[in-house]
């Protein structure tokens, strides 16, 4: 299999095979993302996709039930094309009955209700969706391309189609001093969408992101580690829906997972206990070590 783009996937799907049907991201403009910046979107010809499927088939076992479509937003491709890919997969690996991958909120918006239902029937489930925030000024500043209303409406459409889905919440995205405002607005929007899972990730800016220019000019100042943890606390506190909150990404300084509403008090108690113990310098050093990133001109703790 020819591999060029970085193969990124959510922790839940670390063990399932990744199938490349395209390269990059059709949007590629979010200020906080550089994953596919050097990979202009490219659709792979079907014969190359078949080669890729054949390679997965050679290693498949009876337990190979789920395939993760690689790339920034493979579900932005036309539904007809996705169905052709699924047919080709199941012809060669008949036990496959589930498909995951990253998806933009606007990819969902671009599909009709009947297309979403068809994809759900074909096994598309547990999509990983970078909602990131539910505060319009933040979404606009980072050029995310969707609005808080889209976060709500497209989540509800996925529910109607019968799909589970994960929304990513990107703590720190609003910059220093705006974490709580971002958390409260996002909790409201996310609650209305009620994603099956919310994956909390902390922003770890790197110099190659477009956001670096805003850091340099002072238009955006990185929050401290403590501020990001307080933001996560406010986000969890204000969530009002049935969901699982997973805060165990390697960017998260305080790690936990719990179901809402049952575990809310436990999660808040854990955060209240751990936040005062955060060692700002150590936490930042760990973040930079893991991500090779730099928080630039972070606000002082
Ligand atoms: S949509 Fe996703 S992959 Fe594409 S630029 Fe934004 S964050 Fe990166």
What is the fold's blueprint, element by element?
Elements: E1 18-19, E2 22-23, E3 42-43, H1 46-59, E4 66-69, H2 79-92, E5 98-103, H3 105-109, H4 113-121, E6 127-132, H5 136-141, H6 148-161, E7 165-171, H7 179-193, E8 197-202, H8 211-217, H9 225-238, E9 243-247, E10 256-260, H10 264-274, H11 280-291
Parallel strand pairs: 1-4, 4-5, 5-6, 6-7, 7-8, 8-9
Antiparallel strand pairs: 2-3, 9-10
The protein binds iron/sulfur cluster (SF4).
Iron/sulfur cluster is lined by residues 25, 27-30, 33, 35-36, 72-73, 104, 130.
Features:
301 residues, pyruvate-formate lyase- activating enzyme, binds iron/sulfur cluster, globular, alpha/beta, single chain, 11 helices
Give a brief description.
Helices cover 40% and strands 15% of the residues. It has 301 residues and is α/β, with parallel strands linked by helices.
At the fourth level of CATH, the homologous superfamily is: tm_1862 like domain
Secondary structure tally: strands: 10
Spans of at least 5 consecutive residues whose pLDDT stays below 50 are 297-301
Main sheet: strands, sense, barrel? 8 strands, mixed
How much strand?
Answer: 5-15%
H/I helix tally: 11
> How many structural domains?
1
Q: On the 0-100 scale, what is the average pLDDT?
A: 93
What percent of the residues sit in helical stretches (DSSP H or I)?
40-55%
Please tell me the CATH architecture by its name. Answer: Alpha-Beta Horseshoe
CA-CA gap between termini: 47 Å
**Helix-strand string:** EEEHEHEHHEHHEHEHHEEHH
User: What is the overall silhouette?
Assistant: globular
Q: What is the name of the CATH topology? A: pyruvate-formate lyase- activating enzyme
